Amino acid sequence: MNKQAEPFLVAAAPQVGSDRAHESAHLHVAGEATYIDDIRELDGTLHAALGLSPVAHGRLVAIDVARLRTEPGIAAVFTAADIPGVNDCGPIVKGDDPILAQGEVHFLGQPVFAVIAADRRVARRVAARAKEFVTIEPLPALLTAREAHAAKAYVVPPMHLARGDARSAIDAAPHRLKDQLSIGGQEQFYLEGQISYAVPLEDDTLLVHCSTQHPTEMQHAVAHALELHANQVQVQCRRMGGGFGGKESQSALFACVAALAAKRLGRPVKLRLDRDDDFMATGRRHGFEFDFEVGYDDAGRVLGVEIDLIANAGFSADLSPPVMTRAICHFDNAYWLPNVSMHGYCARTNTQSNTAFRGFGGPQGAIAIEFILDSIARRLGKDPLDVRRANYYGVTSNYVTPYLQRVEDNILEPLTEQLLATSRYRERRAEIAAFNAGSPVLKRGIAFTPVKFGISFNVNHFNQAGALVHVYTDGSVLVNHGGTEMGQGVNTKVAQVVAHELGIPLSSVRCTATDTQKVANTSATAASTGADLNGKAAQDAARKIRERLDAFAAERGLAGAPFAERVAAAYTARVQLWSDGFYATPGLSWDRATMTGKPFFYFAYGAAVSEVIVDTLTGEHKLLAADLLHDVGTSLNPAIDIGQVEGAYIQGYGWLTMEELVWHPKSGALLTHAPSTYKIPTANDAPSVHLRTALFDAPNPADTIHRSKAVGEPPLLLPFSALLAIRDAVSAVGGHRIDPPLRAPATPEAVLDAVEAVRAAAR
Ligand code: MTE
Ligand code: HPA
Ligand code: MOS
To answer: What's the Rg (C-alpha) of the chain?
Structure first.
């Protein structure tokens, strides 16, 4: 299916599988790439700003709209009462995600009203004084996932997935361990914040420029809110300055407010959040709390495990149900768990509604088992690597996941072998032990962790895509597809696929903005499937054109003629030179009630070895070295894939070691709402000795686009090794006999707490 029909064209132009610069790289570096705020503003453009709730939970008694209107420079004020259609922008559970607060406020930071002004600064200054204009009767608030769990407050009913009899297996096991783990959330920190620019057009239609991963859902949200048909709303996105999941569903509120104001005022309206408001109003990666009990044998094999996964969902469901599903379907990570019982709780708290973030719950599920295996190894006095391998999924047996999908493409062992050799893992562990023996304060640590990540949306029907390919009479090609570009390179990969299929140079192919008027009913660019889905759809479109051209050229004896010549001749002979394309991932199934089926088309694998040095007096650490080996099948573009692997590693390292979210324990205010207090990794945090990244060389056994694999999210799990290397270093303080109770993020404070706990237990 992936074979090019004309071998001589492939030989002349192998456009896939080679390093190609990102299609916009030259624009990015020159500051010439157009983001939403760079679109030249139309005459009469107005600016919106949002008034945010000053309390975490309360009854919304009044909004003094009359007084807001009299503020100098304010052109209009909108509240929930002004929304003609449904006041809801939630993606799955309908009715719990108001665009503007109505009746109650559910978190500190919730948008309550919008003010519109010709001058953005004026609008923002008035909006920032929100508490002067709203009357709210405070109600009791639940601010942490544990509190909400104790109160049985959930955004959706608990989810359960069990295989075998975990309880009996634990009870009968030679060894048992019962513990807790706390993993913090993470802000997407896209460099371009949430933004929408809505332009009213003729006959009750609207064009919304929106920084979004999901133009179709934005189209629907706006249409529902404004009581319009989908064919009256056009949503366009040329590119995002990063999305990372934060613009999968949560761009909707801003699209709806800008569209509401534009429609009501008959003027273009832009809503661009500043960084603090973006932090205060939108959600992020779910923090998780885990309670678990495990039974294991002398080799460290897990015989039975029971775990509660408690996610902080925030005030509404948003994407929490599929995030929890993915967490539960990734608790196994690389390991066969014969008896397992998982219980997922999406705790409803009075905080921002948490949402998609690179990995989509997968990292949270998988880190729990990695933490557990790390503890088991220490208790048995074994190298955690050996305990991990003892639990790996098998190739000829022990290959069925708890959700009953068979792991058919297992490459864990060869990938592990290769990384152990290139990283010199065993030798370095010995060197580190020697170093630590002579170093009472500075302790080094090392860890190896593997990755297995399921590819496909865990909601079956999202696994489809469309594309539109135009060949112009000069031989140049324009591609439009349902995917959105957020820096990950989907446009570059799709253009490579089209160039390859048509047998022309990549320079002849251009991708355009994602637009609901070109390809309809698209899925979010998410779940790492952008290139898998849209690449196949674009290939389908290009193939149709090629086949028409081939037939025509054969007929006219033009088979060897240059592309532009054949195209020009075909045009005059009235051959259709553009085509649509479509793709739907085959063979998927999922039963939501039993949480079983085949949710994933295939798995992507990887492994990492990280080494750190920890100052046990201050709790600070330095990441010394990282060796990453990641499976992308047969890469469409190794340069871009390596960028994705390294970017995900550093982003995940930030999540697990330095990015800390702190809400005020009484008011529920997010205190870390700017880069002054919320620290993301910088170039200085990259491994100081070496960062070595390699792609594992093996084609995808599944029939994906040119046998490649999705790469966006899976490598976010690689930095588990950094967190566990810190734990290894801390454990050296107690001679590796005591499990450090290390939480994430492993900030200096968290590391010191763990050091002190180990010291106390060792005494
Ligand atoms: N890379 C960049 N540069 N910027 C991003 O916003 N998002 C990640 C990943 N890599 C992101 C990124 C997330 S969350 C996903 S799901 C995938 O890219 C989406 O794109 P893809 O499906 O085309 O890989
Ligand atoms: N990833 C991202 N977004 C999604 C998913 C997923 O697996 N399922 C539903 N929305
Ligand atoms: Mo990515 S979290 O699926 O947008």
So the answer is: 27
Question: Rounded to the nearest 10 degrees, how much is the dihedral formed by the CA atoms of 332, 334, 338, 341?
Answer: -10
Rounded CA gap, 527 and 545, in Å?
29
Note the pLDDT of residue 7.
44
Helix or strand or coil: residue 742?
Answer: coil
d(CA 328, CA 249): 21
**Which stretches of 517-601 are assigned E, i.e. beta strand?**
578-584, 589-591, 596-598
Residue 295 has what pLDDT? 99
Q: What pLDDT sits at residue 10? A: 46
Pair 126, 65: CB distance under 8 Å: no
| Ligand 3 close to Cβ of residue 526 (< 6 A) | yes
- Would you call 42 exposed, middle or buried from its count of C-beta atoms within 10 A (0-12, 13-18, 19+)? exposed
Does residue 457 line the site of ligand 2, with CB under 6 A?
Answer: yes
Is there a contact between 80 and 87 (Cβ–Cβ < 8 Å)? yes
Locus of tokens 């793709």: 583
Cα-Cα-Cα-Cα torsion 147, 152, 154, 159, nearest 10 degrees, comes to: 120
Residue with tokens 């945010």, as numbered in its chain: 52
Query: Is 713 a catalytic site residue?
Result: yes
pLDDT tens figures, 52-105: 999 999 999 999 999 999 999 999 999 999 999 999 999 999 999 999 999 999
CB distance 563 to ligand 1 below 6 Å? no
CA distance 580 to 233: 22
Distance CA 100, CA 81 (A): 9
Supply angle C-alpha 586, 319, 263, rounded to 5.
105
**What three-state secondary structure class fits 331?**
coil
Alpha carbons within 13 angstroms on the beta-carbon side of residue 441 total: 4
The pTM assigned to this predicted structure is: 0.97
Q: How many CB atoms lie within 10 A of CB 162?
A: 15
Question: CB neighbours of 297 closer than 8 A, spacing ≥ 6?
Answer: 173, 174, 175, 303
Which among 132, 417, 713, 749 is annotated as catalytic?
713
Low-confidence ranges of the chain (pLDDT < 50): 1-11
Q: How far apart are CA 309 and CA 474, in angstroms?
A: 58
Cβ-based neighbours of 338, under 8 Å, separated by 6 or more: 163, 164, 169, 302, 303, 304, 398
CA atoms within 13 A of residue 304's CA, in its CB half-sphere: 19
Q: For residue 736, what are its two tokens? A: 């590796």
**What's the pLDDT score for residue 4?**
44
- Decide: 300 and 335 in contact? Cβ < 8 Å: no
Contacts of 15 (CB under 8 A, 6+ apart): 496, 497, 499, 500, 504, 505, 506
Asked if residues 566 and 494 have their Cβ atoms less than 8 Å apart, the reply is no
Ligand 2 center–CA 320 separation, angstroms: 10
pLDDT for 11:
46
Residue 13: the pLDDT is: 57
Does 619 contact ligand 1 (Cβ within 6 A)?
A: no
d(CA 480, CA 461): 21
Atom of ligand 2 nearest to the CA of 326: 7
Q: Which amino acid is residue 470, in one-letter code?
A: H
- Which atom, in ligand 1's list, is nearest to the CA of 240? 6
Q: Is the CB of 245 under 6 A from ligand 3?
A: yes
Cα separation of the two ends of the chain: 65
Residue-level pLDDT at 227: 98
> What stretch of H or E contains 309?
strand 302-314
Query: CA–CA separation, 648 vs 678, rounded Å?
Result: 18
H/E element holding 544? helix 530-556
Helix (H, G, I), strand (E, B) or coil at 404: coil
**Nearest in space to 305 (alpha carbons), one of 331, 323, 268, 266:** 331
Give the ligand at the shortest distance from the Cα of 454.
2
Pocket test for ligand 1, best of 457, 486, 601 (most atoms within 8 A of CB): 486
